[in-house]
Specification:
Helix content is about 65%, strand content about 0%. It is mostly helical. Helix 4 runs antiparallel to helix 5. The mean pLDDT is about 90.
């Protein structure tokens, strides 16, 4: 598969794929006799993993470390597992922040929709932020 095809499949730029290869996020891709990258099925799996983890917020340095450990062999399985668990905890913490923000947004939408129906804007009695229960001024 060419770099153009891989870019299209994963919605990334050629520069991103070249960068991933250069820093070791994906293994070095085989090239044709003309020097064109020719992505194998294994390469595609690495790109898929990298783009998935990056889109979830995994830092590039952790991806580099993960690939480095993978290349060192099966004796690094416990360390790789620990690394992925730590990355998962970071992602879950980020997701919690997004969930809280979404909860607040949904609350505000409900209040505004009710105001559209009734012609009157009314916040809850304590005027609390729904996701952190801190008292807020009218927003």
């Amino acid at each position: 598969m060419t770099i153009k095809e891989v870019c299209s499949k994963f919605n990334v730029s050629p520069d991103t794929l070249r960068y991933y290869e250069r820093v070791g996020v994906i293994p070095e891709v085989r090239r044709t006799s003309g020097g064109i990258r020719d992505y194998s099925e294994d390469d595609i799996k690495w790109v898929e993993t990298a783009t998935c983890f990056r889109s979830a917020g995994m830092p590039i340095d952790l991806l580099i470390e993960y690939v480095k450990l993978f290349r060192e062999g099966d004796h690094t399985i416990p360390v790789r597992c620990k690394l992925l668990k730590e990355a998962r905890e970071r992602i879950l913490a980020e997701r919690k922040k997004f969930d809280e923000a979404l909860e607040k947004m949904n609350y505000k939408i409900r209040v505004y929709e009710k105001a559209v129906e009734t012609g009157k804007l009314e916040w809850d009695e304590n005027n609390n932020c729904c996701c952190c229960n801190k008292s807020k001024t009218k927003e």
